[in-house]
Amino acid sequence: xxxxxxxxxxxxxxxxxxxxxxxxxxxxxxxxxxxxxxxxxxxxxxxxxxxxxxxxxxxxxxxxxxxxxxxxxxxxxxxxxxxxxxxxxxxxxxxxxxxxxxxxxxxxxxxxxxxxxxxxxxxxxxxxxxxxxxxxxxxxxxxxxxxxxxxxxxxxxxxxxxxxxxxxxxxxxxxxxxxxxxxxxxxxxxxxxxxxxxxxxxxxxxxxxxxxxxxxxxxxxxxxxxxxxxxxxxxxxxxxxxxxxxxxxxxxxxxxxxxxxxxxxxxxxxxxxxxxxxxxxxxxxxxxxxxxxxxxxxxxxxxxxxxxxxxxxxxxxxxxxxxxxxxxxxxxxxxxxxxxxxxxxxxxxxxx
Length: 352
Hints:
By secondary structure, the chain is mostly beta strands. The protein has helices at residues 7-15, 57-63, 104-107, 168-177, and strands spanning 3-4, 19-21, 34-36, 38-45, 64-69, 74-76, 81-91, 96-102, 111-117, 125-126, 131-140, 145-147, 154-160, 181-182, 193-196, 207-210, 217-218, 231-234, 240-243, 248-257, 263-267, 277-279, 284-285, 295-303, 308-311, 315-323.
């Protein structure tokens, strides 16, 4: 029974009121994760914070600048930090732990968000048998974005007792039987699945760079915003690309990846061994992603200290694979109207 929970497990937790969700809709349940939604309760913050020795609510009076209601929407200004209570509460009776991550669409808009819980000294972590509210801290880094009550920025992945991550030898054996990665490289697995950057065609667009003076983006409107108002397309120069300090880039992997029905994946967001930049704010890959012919991974890249040049085929990210407690009855793809199943270099679902 150990390992990450699947689609049917989340339905059971909701039925048993271990997950209490306002305006619950089954479409929020993914094959091995669950989308969380914004309530109308929002605060602009003076500081980012954690609450290791008490409830988050007890700190809001001291740390908040102003309280807002998201019912009719609110524009979150760039580089201002907001805290929003989520519609979901947890009331775990069984030995369940978890973690949270931004959704793919959130990461592709350069929205830096982190989940905060009562009595916790770590962002994104759901401790064993947690009971209480969940809050999300949101900072828009590239665009001014309007959010409404009910919008979904992040998701949680739960596990029974422990997460069971696969080592390189286990990954090699699975890859030999059913492909986890479609690649011409010899060494694919090294502390997880290594992904490299695709800058192979100097005549084709290899990346999108966010524009600095873009109009307000409405997060609730999909396939609505003109991408030319928000993004600058870029082609490689001699199969290289300069990542400029504090600019935000969307790129894609050279490899196609596949997540089988009994596994889940997670991108490692920051790895100083491959460069001083952050890759992929959104970390979860659900069972069925790219299964079984493979799909490219889209990468969100930002450097903070110095300009950084990357070359075609350079390692840029790693994926860890973990076991589910059993194969998921629902897979990422058409049945769930998944947005990024056969993606190439794909911006978030908000653009046309």
